[in-house]
Write a structure and sequence with these properties.
Blueprint lengths: L22 H8 L6 E5 L4 H6 L6 E6 L2 H16 L2 H8 L7 H8 L5 H8 L2 H6 L6 H17 L2 H7 L5 H12 L2 H10 L2 H8 L12 H14 L7 H8 L12 H10 L3 E5 L2 H7 L5 E5 L9 H14 E11 L14 E3 L1 H9 L8 E7 L1
Parallel strand pairs: 1-2, 1-4, 2-3, 4-5
Antiparallel strand pairs: 5-7, 6-7
Helix pairs in contact: 3-5, 3-6, 4-5, 8-11, 8-14, 11-13, 16-17
Length: about 375
């Protein structure tokens, strides 16, 4: 594969059992219309499926990891076979004692590759498939082994109770932002620990400066400016399930539109670069690119953006996130891509997946 990231990291394991980008931000930024063709990084599948709620004509998901495509396939099978509440149980958003039985009902919809992946992971199925990734295990380690040294369960529960903005700010300042919180947060979310336990050391190749300091600042924003009670990503990190706050693809009102549109979805095990090289010019209107530029050099980033612009129709939109590495349209592509900076900045302020430093929207001229 021509992907720079694939040459440096192992993509055979499940890295992400769920998507850690806010689909509400994604859908509002992309403004998907009836009849659009969308290209999406598969990841765990949630945000690819969320695109179907806008009723596009076609959604193509690509990923260079068979394990990540198995996560998407399991969700597709669950939407075909299960009721909404059963889907939430299978993934781990809700408590359940019958996940093995629910998975058994979904098996007939899975490919041989996806069956090999999930049949070999009965413990992950029993615990909830959305927690099966390396990144989710990293958060589980924080929740189970670090957080109890910082705050008791009662204080975590207090954090997740709805409050006015002024009360959230007081709670954070007076009760949450302790010296233990700052110290252990900086250790656990450091480049060293995150690279080995959460992501991959090679993903930090282009990162400069303190990782934990930047994430801590964004976490404060999520706990004060935003409402923690309504944040599914924060709830999973702190409690291990989504509770009353669900990401877009798992909400009750999304279930029927996704199930009705599931046949407009296709997926391919291929790098984004190779797929774009084979795609006809002007094939797509909307692009969900996750944080793909985080792992590649500036030169590879520019080359990929040029390929994306070639594959896009005029007026198309690209959406992606920067976490720790600043990437966006280079000057040499100014005649091809127009940044939508004001809208992107506004959406970033509302982004519930709070650890990203920037949300980027670019429109094809």
């Amino acid at each position: 594969m021509s992907s720079e990231a694939a040459a440096r990291a192992d993509f055979s394991l499940i890295r992400y059992g769920q998507c850690w980008e806010d689909a509400d931000v994604l859908l509002e930024g992309l403004a998907v219309r009836d009849g659009d063709s969308c290209l999406s990084i598969a990841s765990a599948g949630d945000n690819t499926l969320a695109l179907l709620t806008a009723r596009p004509a076609r959604v193509v998901a690509v990923d260079l990891s068979p394990a990540q495509l198995a996560c998407l396939e399991l969700r597709v099978a669950a939407f075909r076979e299960l009721r909404h509440e059963e889907l939430l149980e299978l993934l781990g958003s809700r408590p359940s004692t019958r996940r093995g039985e629910l998975y058994g009902r979904c098996r007939r919809h899975l490919s041989a590759e996806a069956l090999r992946c999930w049949d070999a992971r009965p413990d992950e199925i029993s615990a909830g498939a959305a927690g099966a990734g390396k990144f989710e295990r990293y958060f589980a380690l924080f929740r189970q082994s670090v957080l109890p040294w910082i705050h008791p369960r009662s204080r975590v529960a207090d954090l997740l109770r709805p409050k006015p903005t002024a009360e959230r700010e007081r709670f954070y300042r007076c009760e949450w932002d302790t010296w233990r919180w700052r110290l252990l947060f900086r250790v656990f979310f450091s480049r060293f620990v995150m690279g080995r336990a959460g992501r991959d050391p090679t993903f930090f190749r282009f990162v400069e400066g303190s990782v934990s300091q930047r994430i801590l600042a964004r976490t404060r924003h999520a706990l004060t400016a935003l409402e923690p009670a309504e944040n599914p990503y924060l709830r999973w990190i702190l409690t291990g399930c989504h509770g009353v706050a669900l990401p877009l693809a798992l909400r009750p009102e999304s279930f029927d539109p996704i199930r009705d549109g599931i046949d407009r979805l296709e997926w391919h095990c291929v790098s984004l670069e190779d797929y774009l090289d084979a795609a006809p010019e002007g094939s797509f209107d909307r692009f969900n690119l996750s944080d793909v530029f985080e792992y590649v050099s500036p030169e590879a980033s520019s080359s990929l953006l040029e390929r994306l612009a070639r594959a896009a129709r005029p007026g198309g939109r690209l959406a992606y996130w920067n976490m720790l590495v600043p990437r966006s349209r280079p000057p040499e592509l100014a005649e091809r891509l127009r940044p939508q900076e004001r809208l992107a900045a506004d959406l970033h302020l509302r982004d519930k997946a709070f650890f990203y430093s920037r949300f980027v929207l670019e429109e094809v001229r």
